[in-house]
């Protein structure tokens, strides 16, 4: 793999930190509508929540333009990534993906015996789709695409990706992780969910952790062909892992379009502020379609983490192609100002 992450020997004391810019969370959430729904639903927690789950699934299926049978729920999209990997790779095989990419599905696939066919990203950090297609062989059980991609923040243009998914899913299932897609702006940022209406074997993962501001409340879902989901759910059930309060919280945040629009707007403002300041300091960032930005730094990753943590700023540090990089999540503007100031003091 092209990526290695750095960690401090000791975990920082999170409650003493001034800016938590390490986990691509939503600094404004959960929305007040969700807070209210969660508080009011506590008393219903003695019952299983099938009815409320069905209400949420119904709303999501209408949004995605599919039937409720095309949706599998989970406590966060991590749950879906992991379950799909467990079931698909329990007899081995290989998974084709970009490198760098988000490693959750791949790590589970590898741990149950699959191999990873890592295809380096192109020079603009988008997916190298022809190389990925060429890497598919008789043992390939799935192609994993993270779009926009984590940790690089890049997008692979919608039209190219649509053609790729449409063609490749005739051979093997294509999993498209769209955790950050609602935050992406500009052309080429369309969802691959439209391929389901054409009966294509694609699986789209979405989460309430990012634009909906519910990372700690844990709700996510996969949209796929019912036959594909049946195969997964025969072995491991979906919605069973989500609490009653989180289901009600998710219904509220789903309806709260104002909160989502505000998140998107403030996220863009923070990115613009950051870009401007990174340019002033001569850091060359990758333009981001997400709520995080990655850029090369000129001190070793672990030293960088130690210095930023000492200033109360939590970020992530990676080596990519043997060079150190910082990945910073968008926080509030106040947190971004502290990040910029702290970074300036290092150079
Ligand atoms: N997919 C990507 C690309 C992510 O970056 C993350 C989390 O950061 C997830 C999935 C999992 O998120 P969650 O389990 O909170 O839905």
How would you concisely characterize the structure shown here?
The chain has 347 residues and is an alpha/beta fold.
Topology diagram in text:
Elements: E1 3-6, E2 19-20, H1 32-41, H2 50-64, E3 71-74, H3 77-88, E4 94-99, H4 104-111, E5 115-120, H5 129-135, E6 140-146, H6 158-168, E7 174-177, E8 202-207, E9 220-223, H7 226-233, H8 244-255, H9 257-280, E10 292-296, H10 301-310, E11 313-314, E12 316-320, E13 323-329, H11 333-346
Parallel strand pairs: 2-11, 4-5, 4-6, 6-7, 7-8
Antiparallel strand pairs: 1-12, 3-9, 8-9, 10-13, 12-13
Helix pairs in contact: 1-8, 2-8, 3-4, 9-11
The chain binds pyridoxal-5'-phosphate.
Pyridoxal-5'-phosphate binds at residues 24, 76-78, 102, 146, 150, 177, 179, 207, 209, 215, 220.
């Amino acid at each position: 793999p092209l990526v290695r992450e750095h960690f401090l020997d000791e975990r920082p004391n999170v409650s003493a930190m001034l800016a938590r810019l390490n986990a691509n969370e939503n600094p404004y959430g959960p929305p007040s509508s969700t807070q209210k729904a969660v508080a009011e639903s506590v008393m219903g927690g003695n019952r299983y929540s099938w009815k409320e789950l069905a209400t949420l699934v119904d709303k999501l299926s209408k949004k995605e333009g599919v039937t409720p049978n095309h949706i599998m729920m989970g406590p966060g999209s991590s749950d879906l990534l992991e379950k799909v990997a467990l079931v698909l790779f329990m007899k081995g095989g290989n998974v084709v993906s970009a490198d760098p990419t988000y490693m959750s599905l791949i790590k589970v696939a590898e741990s149950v015996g699959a191999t990873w066919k890592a295809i380096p990203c192109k020079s603009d950090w988008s997916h190298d789709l022809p190389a990925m297609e060429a890497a598919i062989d008789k043992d390939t059980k799935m192609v994993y695409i993270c779009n926009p991609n984590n940790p690089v923040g890049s997008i692979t243009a919608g039209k190219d990706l649509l053609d790729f998914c449409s063609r490749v899913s005739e051979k093997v299932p294509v999993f498209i992780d769209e955790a950050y897609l609602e935050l992406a702006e500009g052309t080429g940022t369309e969802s691959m969910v439209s391929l389901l209406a054409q009966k294509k074997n694609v699986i789209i993962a979405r989460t309430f952790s990012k634009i909906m501001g519910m990372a700690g409340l844990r709700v996510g879902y996969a949209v796929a062909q019912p036959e594909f989901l049946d195969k997964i759910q025969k072995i491991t059930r979906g919605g069973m892992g989500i609490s009653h309060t989180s289901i009600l919280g998710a219904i509220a945040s789903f309806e709260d379009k104002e909160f989502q629009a505000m998140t998107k707007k403030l996220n863009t403002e923070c990115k613009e502020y950051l870009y401007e300041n990174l340019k002033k300091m001569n850091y060359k960032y990758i333009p981001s379609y997400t709520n995080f930005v990655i850029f090369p730094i000129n001190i070793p990753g672990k030293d960088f983490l130690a210095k930023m943590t000492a200033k109360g700023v939590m970020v992530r540090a990676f080596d990519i192609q043997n060079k150190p990089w910082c990945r910073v999540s968008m926080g509030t503007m106040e947190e971004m100002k502290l990040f910029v100031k702290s970074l300036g003091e290092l150079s």
